[in-house]
Amino acid sequence: MKVDILIIGAGISGATLAERYANAGKKVLIIEKRDHIAGNCYDHYDQNGILVSKYGAHLFHTNDDEVWEYVNRFAEWYPWEHRVIARVDGKTVPIPVNISTVNILFDEKLETEDDMKQWLEQNRISFDQPTNGEEAVLNRVGPVLYDKMFKHYTKKQWDKYPAELHASVLERIPVRSNYDDRYFSDKYQALPKGGYTKVFESMLDHPNITVLLNTDYFDVKDQYEGYEKLFYTGPVDRFFEFEEELTEKLEYRSINFVTEHIDAEYYQENSVVNYPGREVDFTRIVEHKHFGNQKSDKTSIVKEYTVDEGDPYYPVPNEKNQLIYEKYKAKADQLTDVYFVGRLANYKYFNMDQAFKNALDLYKTLEHAKAGAL
Ligand code: UDP
């Protein structure tokens, strides 16, 4: 079989590049280790007819018009503003921290934005330039909320305290001085009707695209040479693991998803409930039927336990890993016609929209002269 473009991995990055190249007339082969497409966005209907995500909740949000236009080519999306609540000290509070969070946790009676700003000013410890996750949180909300809502959740999630992580990890969560309890504030916040897997099916539904599932690229790589370009979306260190001088491993976090089927209409009042305390080992419980207000007599919930072994889901952003990554990146940059793309290959904590954006940008950079506009 003639292959112009070889792509390793059928997640966001791989599918986007496949779709772009196939539409430009190239023959594309995707090699995917798992038995399904869609990467960690993969979802399916469970035994109760509820659409569930196999690898945790995926909430699409973006401020990028181009990405929004692009994803709308492959599905109808309905507006969905994600909200998260947390159980703290036996109380239930909104996260991100807003006026209600402070009132509920500390029996305060803050009413206005000014009240909240004043409370934050009295409690926060100011850092001009937070150098790690602990400083980032202290700078925003101060030590009491840091202890209750961020310190132990982060330890459970990363097996590191916030001080051992880049500030950017904790800065993903904003602080609100009003009552806004939405998790994100982006212009576009939506879910695809019928689920994410359908989006990927639609992206890959092209006569120029072949997908080979259940195949580890490293087992078959000798059979697939002679391509024009190779796009690799797996963990960057895996690509070089047979090279002796690069033995330092990058850290990744994986998640152990433990599902329970429950013979009741609902288990909890919200799609995601965080458990930032030490009293339980899991970080959060996701009840998928809340997404899109799905109806069913029964429900299922998923408890998330993060672990260091298993499929890599999260890079671990800190100084040490960044330095190791730079070494791999230098190796990667030396290769011609081989491109590293996506969360695992770039070792970056991309959101979904950033993954789309990076793949689209890479395509444009490589093919600009020929492809013109997107
Ligand atoms: N975080 C926290 N408490 C929470 C929620 C998040 O300490 O209740 C911290 C934690 O370190 C987490 C980071 O903020 O890894 C980013 O959270 P986000 O919800 O963006 O993580 P994701 O959904 O990507 O797992």
From TrEMBL:
Keywords: FAD, Flavoprotein, Isomerase. Its cofactor is FAD. The keyword Flavoprotein applies. It is an enzyme of class 5 (isomerase). One of its GO terms (cellular component) is cytosol. Pfam families: GLF (PF03275), NAD_binding_8 (PF13450). Its EC number is 5.4.99.9. Coiled coil: none annotated. GO terms for molecular function: flavin adenine dinucleotide binding; UDP-galactopyranose mutase activity. Residues 148-349 form the UDP-galactopyranose mutase C-terminal domain. It comes from the Bacteria. InterPro entries: UDP-GALP_mutase, UDP-GalPyranose_mutase_C. NCBIfam families: UDP-GALP_mutase. Belongs to the UDP-galactopyranose/dTDP-fucopyranose mutase family. This is UDP-galactopyranose mutase. It comes from Marnyiella aurantia. The gene is glf.
